[in-house]
């Protein structure tokens, strides 16, 4: 480390305190299992050493130390025995690495600091205060919120992941108070991670507001009896002592004894011999090379596999090589060498660079291959001149001719003995299947996006950059960095090859490393069957559906569009009459002014921009009060949306060559496992309205074919009867009864014994509403009754079916305890905000926890059917193609001569994909159009 000096030449006294725990756990969770030559696991040691040495090369200070926790028990446990009681023990495979990590720190020439009975945070606080008092400045390398109370003039933090400083403005943004009040906020809000109790019902925002009003914790507690809000007053008065205990737990002890004198923290160069010996003992070859202790040898080839591997091989060396530099492949001989290396490796990362986000219209610009971590290349295919080359009249860059490159790659990409790993494989598979890109049927494949999704749907996003940061501790090069942004953006084909290589080859490298990190976790997580039998197989199924598309009658679509246009004109005229003057019906601002300023209707609320809200909730409430203008605008909006989205939108996305539209299915965007349809979204066309049916009439079959709709009947209610073990509901489904009439009879008990239409409607509303965690208020508003009547209906429902209430309470408790719920088929669905102190957000999370197993279970049922049907149809010699998936419905295009056989097969497969305590039922319909079939 270089010692900084001031402009006058005097040493700049700058102490850097590294939070060792943050580095350790980030390294451990980011890297796959690694063992050194004698079998000792060292993944955390390697990651820690790599991060520390990189940090030392970039940051300058006169003093530095890494601070560690000496043990789990500290003086705080004497204050509050349950402090950190919920913290799990460190993983068994990490514990032996702690001593090696301290050895790595010392070998790097950095002082290690720890002290029994005190936390690392206390030591950081004490050293920061002592050094600052001596006139020095301090940087704390950590993003731990507990340390933010130490920020002040001369003491700042550095986020080690974002590499951004944390000063008073950042603390104020996070907590709503200056650093001096952070401990007070934590004392009130508590901390479930450390089991700090806090004051029930007080969150961070409320705590900040109260503390700023009353000047601190003691000022607030003194004023608590006079606070106006009853619940807040009662909570503060009853828990005043608990708040004081909480502050003693969160307040860092700046008077902690200093186990090492300040001069021991002076920055010094590492002992080269000692550091080299340590790195060689651990087998960290790449670090040896990077630090100048010798060259890292080329990665040895792994013997060719005879069959596709199901788990990643154990790493040959305990090291994670750097991300780059990578090779640019510009001639066929070099490409053949990479292909041979890929065959030997048996598992490769692969990625494509194209000129379009639409895979059916995209042309390959280049592709990248990774054969091992840190070992990757980019193969440019269609790069052109850059602006600089044009100015110099330079020749185009040398590259492999696209046809020759794809001909060479085709045997590799179709080789069953080589596993191709992608991130978002469906896109790349569709691109490579296009004739212009080689017409390659890539197999077998793994998809890191779907591996992550199978384990952690709802917990975080599953894009490559996010996964890389989460699991590898690495931020990949952004697309904007190489192409620019806005008007200055250039096509990827014009990016200079050195920059294109760094970006594209890194994507393949990151993908392969993610596979090595995530694939082994599938079995440990209990998600291997879900991934292998459902998510992985869905990639090819959806690829084929997207490529097939569905035919649209352009003439009928134009006719619908013309009719909608005329209706909109008529509706606008009526709206103007109801408003008393003309205005832009599509302008929420103008509508709000008419409703609330001119018509003086109650309930108007202005947003931040100063305009009244006129969203669907506001208009429906007004319409319910008999405001004709509100109802007329709602009707106008529905037609306008249908026209713009499904008439104009479909026309724009219609393939002129085939007369078909090709929706795109998003596989990892929902928390429950459901598939989403985009561009165009064919899942939101209204089913029960006349306008929705007209639009579906425009979707037609090819000549000699019909469209077949196969729709699961009441799948979520069947899952409810199965999960909640409700005998009467199971009996009703088994006997094919009308479930809503049966529910109405049992809940409302009509004196005549006959269920009328209104009773059935109410039963249907509660049957479906209960799955979504509907409240008494929500049911009342939908049925047009008082909240008290709504509560009475829900109480009667749970009184008749107590198993349902028990089931739902069990789901909420599972979510609170584990952070997720499971479907009947084992998928984990993570529930955000389930333990938040914000009542509104927590209530929303509880509703999500109730609904997720049903919606997720329904998604699982139809996915299981989708992965079985293509093979079943092929094995039966049938030519039907699956075209669409819309919630619980599948749409097929079927030759007229095969309708009966296809119908029987589809019904048998769909009803047999899951064994529940109630039968699955599928309704089949056929017709020339989607409207006729459904």
Automatic annotation (TrEMBL):
It comes from the Bacteria. Residues 326-523 form the 3'-5' exonuclease domain. Gene3D superfamilies: 3.30.70.370, 5' to 3' exonuclease, C-terminal subdomain (1.10.150.20), 5'-nuclease (3.40.50.1010), Ribonuclease H-like superfamily/Ribonuclease H (3.30.420.10), Taq DNA Polymerase, Chain T, domain 4 (1.20.1060.10). GO terms for molecular function: DNA-directed DNA polymerase activity. Its EC number is 2.7.7.7. Keywords: DNA damage, DNA repair, DNA replication, DNA-binding, DNA-directed DNA polymerase, Exonuclease, Hydrolase, Nuclease, Nucleotidyltransferase, Transferase. It catalyses: DNA(n) + a 2'-deoxyribonucleoside 5'-triphosphate = DNA(n+1) + diphosphate. It holds the Pfam family 5_3_exonuc_N. Residues 13-268 form the 5'-3' exonuclease domain. SUPFAM superfamilies: 5' to 3' exonuclease, C-terminal subdomain, DNA/RNA polymerases, PIN domain-like, Ribonuclease H-like. Residues 692-898 form the DNA-directed DNA polymerase family A palm domain. Single-chain monomer with multiple functions. In addition to polymerase activity, this DNA polymerase exhibits 3'-5' and 5'-3' exonuclease activity. Belongs to the DNA polymerase type-A family. This is DNA polymerase I. It comes from Plastoroseomonas hellenica. The gene is polA.
């Amino acid at each position: 480390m270089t010692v900084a000096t001031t402009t006058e030449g005097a040493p700049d006294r700058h102490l850097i305190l590294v939070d060792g725990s943050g580095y350790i756990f980030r390294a451990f969770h980011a890297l796959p299992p690694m063992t050194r030559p004698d079998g000792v696991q060292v993944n955390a040691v390697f990651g820690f050493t790599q991060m520390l040495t990189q940090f030392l090369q970039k940051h300058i200070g006169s003093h530095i130390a890494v601070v560690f926790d000496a043990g789990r028990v500290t003086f705080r446990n004497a204050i509050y025995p349950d402090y950190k009681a919920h913290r799990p023990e460190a993983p068994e495979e990490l514990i032996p690495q702690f001593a090696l990590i301290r050895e790595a720190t010392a070998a790097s020439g950095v002082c290690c600091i720890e002290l029994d009975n005190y936390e690392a945070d206390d030591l950081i606080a004490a050293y920061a205060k002592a050094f600052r008092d001596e006139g020095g400045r301090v940087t704390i390398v950590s993003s731990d919120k507990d340390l933010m109370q130490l920020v002040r003039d001369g003491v700042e933090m550095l986020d080690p992941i974002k590499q951004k400083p944390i000063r008073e403005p950042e603390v104020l943004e996070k907590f709503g108070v200056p650093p001096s009040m952070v401990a007070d906020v934590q004392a009130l809000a508590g901390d479930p991670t450390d089991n700090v109790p806090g004051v029930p019902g007080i969150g961070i925002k409320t705590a900040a507001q109260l503390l700023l009003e009353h000047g601190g914790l003691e000022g607030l507690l003194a004023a608590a009896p006079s606070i106006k809000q009853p619940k807040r007053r009662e909570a503060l008065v009853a828990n005043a002592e608990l708040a004081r205990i909480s502050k003693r737990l969160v307040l860092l002890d700046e008077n902690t004894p200093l186990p090492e004198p300040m001069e021991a923290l002076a920055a010094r160069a590492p002992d080269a011999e000692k550091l080299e010996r340590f790195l060689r003992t651990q087998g960290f070859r790449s670090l040896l090379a990077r630090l100048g202790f010798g060259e890292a040898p080329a990665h040895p080839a792994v013997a060719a596999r005879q069959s596709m591997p199901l788990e990643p091989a154990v790493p040959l060396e305990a090291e994670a090589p750097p991300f780059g530099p990578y090779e640019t492949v510009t001639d066929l001989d070099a490409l053949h060498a990479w292909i041979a290396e890929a065959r030997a490796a048996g598992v490769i990362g692969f990625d494509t660079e194209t000129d379009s986000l639409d895979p059916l219209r995209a042309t390959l610009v280049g592709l990248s291959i990774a054969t091992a971590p840190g070992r990757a290349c980019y193969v440019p295919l269609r790069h052109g001149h850059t602006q600089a080359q044009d100015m110099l009249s330079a020749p185009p860059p040398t590259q492999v001719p696209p046809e020759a490159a794809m001909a060479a790659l085709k045997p590799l990409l179709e080789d069953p003995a080589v596993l191709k790993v992608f991130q978002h494989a469906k896109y790349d598979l569709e691109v490579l299947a296009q004739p212009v890109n080689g017409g390659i049927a890539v197999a077998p494949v793994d998809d890191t996006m779907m591996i992550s999704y199978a384990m952690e749907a709802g917990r975080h996003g599953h894009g490559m950059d996010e996964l890389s940061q989460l699991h590898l501790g690495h931020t990949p090069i952004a697309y904007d960095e190489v192409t620019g942004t806005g008007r200055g953006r250039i096509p990827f084909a014009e990016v200079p090859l050195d920059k294109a290589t760094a970006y594209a080859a890194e994507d393949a490298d990151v993908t392969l490393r993610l596979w090595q990190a995530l694939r082994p976790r599938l079995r440990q997580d209990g998600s291997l069957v879900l991934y292998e039998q459902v998510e992985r197989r869905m990639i090819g199924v959806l690829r084929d559906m997207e490529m097939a598309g569905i035919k649209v009658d352009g003439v009928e679509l134009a006719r619908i569009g013309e009719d909608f246009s005329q209706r909109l004109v008529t509706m606008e005229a009526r709206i103007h009459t109801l408003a008393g003057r003309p205005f832009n019906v599509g302008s929420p601002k103008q509508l709000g002014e008419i409703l609330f300023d001119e018509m003086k209707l109650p309930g108007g609320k202005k947003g931040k921009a100063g305009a009244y809200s006129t969203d669907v909730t506001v208009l429906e409430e007004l319409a319910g009060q008999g405001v004709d203008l509100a109802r007329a605008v709602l009707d106008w909006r529905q037609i306008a949306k249908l026209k713009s989205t499904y008439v104009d939108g479909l026309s724009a996305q219609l393939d002129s060559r085939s007369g078909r539209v090709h929706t795109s299915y998003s596989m990892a965007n929902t928390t429950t496992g459901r598939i989403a349809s985009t561009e165009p979204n064919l899942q939101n066309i209204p089913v029960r309205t006349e306008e929705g049916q007209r639009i579906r009439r425009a979707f037609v079959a090819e000549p000699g074919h019909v469209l077949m709709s196969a729709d699961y009947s009441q799948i979520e209610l069947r899952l409810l009867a199965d999960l909640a073990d409700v005998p009467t509901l199971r009996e009703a489904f088994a006997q094919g009864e009308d479930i809503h009439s049966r529910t109405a009879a049992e809940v409302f008990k009509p004196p005549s014994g006959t269920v009328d239409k209104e009773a059935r409607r109410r039963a249907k509303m509660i049957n479906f509403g209960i799955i979504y965690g509907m409240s008494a208020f929500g049911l009342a508003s939908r049925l047009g009754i008082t909240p008290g009547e709504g509560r009475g209906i829900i109480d009667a429902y749970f009184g008749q079916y107590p198993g349902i209430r028990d089931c739902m309470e069990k789901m909420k408790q599972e979510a609170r305890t584990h952070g997720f719920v499971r479907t009947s088929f084992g998928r984990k669905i993570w529930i955000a905000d389930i333990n938040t102190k914000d009542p509104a957000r927590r209530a929303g999370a509880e509703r999500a926890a109730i609904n997720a197993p049903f919606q997720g279970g329904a998604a699982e049922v139809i996915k299981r059917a989708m992965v079985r049907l293509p093979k079943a149809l092929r094995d039966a010699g049938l030519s039907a193609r699956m075209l669409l998936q819309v919630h619980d419905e599948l749409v097929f295009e079927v030759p007229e001569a095969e309708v009966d056989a296809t119908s029987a097969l589809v019904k048998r497969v769909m009803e047999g994909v899951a064994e529940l305590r109630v039968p699955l039922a599928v309704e089949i319909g056929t017709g020339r159009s989607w409207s006729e079939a459904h």
